[in-house]
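Severity: low
Component: inverse-folding endpoint
Summary: output formatting inconsistent between runs
Steps to reproduce: submit the following structure tokens with default settings.
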């Protein structure tokens, strides 16, 4: 699975090269497992350990291909745990999107 994932990252990068000076990837965001686990316990994609593994693959890929990497995963975790950043434990709410926006803005303009 991971090999296929990395191949897909390479394909995306190669497809975008003619139109982009620099390619930037964002990490996947964490989920609230106590909410998403109630929905399904078979989908690994809804487990933070699985998300972390794939975020590490994205980061390694970016480092080896001179692409940018924005770690929104860590920013979500570093946020006040009492502040809900998700609509449903999976999709960001307005505050979550603001956090992502601020991370991208900081990356682009710092």
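Observed output (run 2 of 3):
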């Amino acid at each position: 699975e991971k090999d296929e994932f990395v191949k897909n990252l390479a394909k995306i990068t190669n497809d975008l090269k003619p139109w982009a000076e620099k390619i930037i990837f964002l990490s996947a965001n964490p989920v609230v497992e106590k909410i998403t686990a109630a929905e399904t316990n078979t989908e690994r994609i809804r487990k933070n350990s699985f998300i972390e593994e794939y975020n590490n693959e994205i980061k390694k890929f970016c480092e080896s291909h001179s692409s940018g990497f924005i770690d929104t995963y860590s920013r979500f975790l570093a946020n006040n745990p009492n502040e809900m950043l998700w609509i449903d434990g999976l999709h960001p709410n307005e505050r979550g999107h603001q956090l992502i926006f601020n991370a991208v803005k900081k990356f682009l303009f710092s």
